[in-house]
Write a structure and sequence with these properties.
Blueprint (H helix, E strand, L loop, with lengths): L1 H18 L4 E7 L4 E11 L4 E8 L5 E3 L2 E3 L2 E2 L9 E2 L18 E2 L3 E5 L6 E6 L6 E4 L7 E6 L6 E6 L6 E4 L10 E2 L2 E4 L9 E2 L7 E6 L7 E7 L5 E7 L2 E6 L3 E3 L9 E5 L10 E5 L7 E9 L6 E9 L5 E7 L2 E6 L8 E7 L8 E5 L6 E4 L7 E14 L2 E6 L6 E4 L2
Parallel strand pairs: 22-26
Antiparallel strand pairs: 1-2, 2-3, 3-4, 3-5, 6-7, 8-9, 9-10, 11-12, 12-13, 14-16, 15-17, 18-19, 19-20, 21-23, 24-25, 25-26, 27-28, 28-31, 29-30, 29-32, 32-33, 32-34
Length: 411
């Protein structure tokens, strides 16, 4: 019996030393010894909620009782490691990664990113489809083909070389006194390229040119006839103006004067040069507001068109979100130039459906506390600047782009 007690005590001491689990010391009644005795004890991890407290008699080594108690967790759990119980030394189950469902990618690979620790998962190389031609090449301009990764949807583009002219040779035509002639020349079967040079007739005709100018609604015509006999010598259509575009209709304030490029094309798709029109830009195109450029046609064209473009305020970014009980404190970078204030949105939906919108009317303000929020709920936050501008007696509010979305969970 004595040998058994000694063996038990030795085993308990070794367990305490190896596991480094704190021992229990106190008094308890031992049924074997028949009296109140000093005790020692150890703690043993039971499950995620509790641990055992084994109490032993210090005289005979008998296990007197084994009550259980809840863990006292310490530390902060990460995606791959849990908290540690300060009593038994056991650890909780790690919560695991919270993978974002959206793909992130670079030129070579795509992956999912953990919303908590930014760990990469499902990393793989792009798998490109066969591609689609988005811009067909012409004789003199390059085209473009777009490829899409069938895994993540990333897009890349590839340049298609210009095709070059497909030349067709034409023999010379001798000039007469009443009919024009020409030297041998080449044309392209795919575009309007030509080396054609007309040789005027050497006869008695006196040429008169009549120009009907093309407009936005109708084609024009250039007619060459004889002013004496009214013989028609030549007639050439002037395609109507079909498209006027600006290189950009929305700009972001940067302190510089904005001057978007104007492109004018006729109904055949041909780009018209500066000989066909003049441009007049409105003044003050440096600051946030609404501006115009007026295109006035000349030469073989008539009419005018006014295009509108805007300059919007520079955006800002969220620098920090601090979570507390039922509230979030949001801080952002100050944007004082060409800015009247800020517009802040927060919502439990990442699409900002039904979002709460707050207007901060002072550009010097750089923080806001959203209160009365749901506890332990993830909120998405974004911000943009705005500028109120009065032009021509009308006041209008211009907004910047939304900042990148950030999120935080209330306590």
């Amino acid at each position: 019996m004595k040998r058994r007690i000694l063996t038990t005590l030795f085993t308990m001491c070794m367990v305490l030393i190896l596991l480094q689990i704190p021992a229990y010391a106190g008094k308890a009644y031992c049924d074997i010894c028949g009296k109140w005795v000093s005790t020692t004890g150890t703690y043993e991890y039971k499950d995620a909620g509790y641990h055992w407290h084994h109490v032993y008699c210090t005289e005979c080594g008998t296990n007197i009782t084994n009550p259980r108690s809840a863990h006292v967790w310490s530390g902060t759990a990460t995606c791959t490691s849990g908290q540690t119980c300060t009593i038994c030394g056991g650890t909780s189950t790690p919560p695991g990664h919270d993978w974002n469902s959206n793909w992130i990618s670079d030129e070579n690979n795509h992956w999912h990113e953990c919303n908590v620790c930014a760990e990469k998962g499902d990393v793989g190389e792009h798998i490109w489809n066969d591609g689609t031609i988005t811009t067909s090449p012409t004789c003199t301009t390059e085209g473009e083909r777009k490829y899409t990764c069938i895994g993540c949807g990333r897009i890349k583009t590839e340049t298609i070389q210009a095709t070059g002219h497909d030349l067709v040779h034409h023999d010379a035509q001798a000039v007469t006194c009443t009919e024009n002639g020409w030297e041998a020349y080449d044309t392209c079967s795919n575009c309007d390229y030509t080396t054609y040079t007309e040789i005027p007739a050497t006869g008695e005709h006196t040429e008169k040119t009549t120009v009907t100018k093309a407009t936005m609604k109708s084609n024009g015509k250039i007619v060459v006839s004889c002013s004496v006999c009214e013989k028609l010598i030549s007639s050439k259509d002037v395609p109507k103006i079909a498209g006027i575009t600006l290189s950009s209709t929305e700009h972001t304030y940067n302190g510089n004067v904005r001057k978007p490029v104007v492109t004018v094309k006729d109904s055949t798709g041909k780009k018209l040069g500066s000989t066909a029109y003049t441009l007049t830009y409105s003044a003050g195109r440096k600051y946030v507001g609404r501006y115009t450029v007026t295109i006035r046609f000349k030469g073989n064209y008539s009419g005018s068109v006014t295009k509108i473009f805007t300059i919007k305020p520079k955006t800002t970014s969220i620098s920090r979100i601090t979570a507390a009980n039922n509230r979030l404190t949001i801080k952002w970078a100050r944007q004082s130039v060409q800015t009247t204030g800020y517009q802040l949105q927060y919502c439990t939906s990442s699409t900002f459906a039904g979002a709460k919108t707050v207007t901060i009317a002072k550009p010097a303000t750089t923080s806001y506390t959203a209160s009365k929020l749901l506890a332990k709920k993830k909120y998405y936050v974004r911000i943009r600047t705005y500028k109120r501008v009065t032009q021509n007696g009308t006041t209008k509010t211009y907004y910047s782009k939304w900042s990148s979305t950030k999120s935080a969970t209330t306590k």
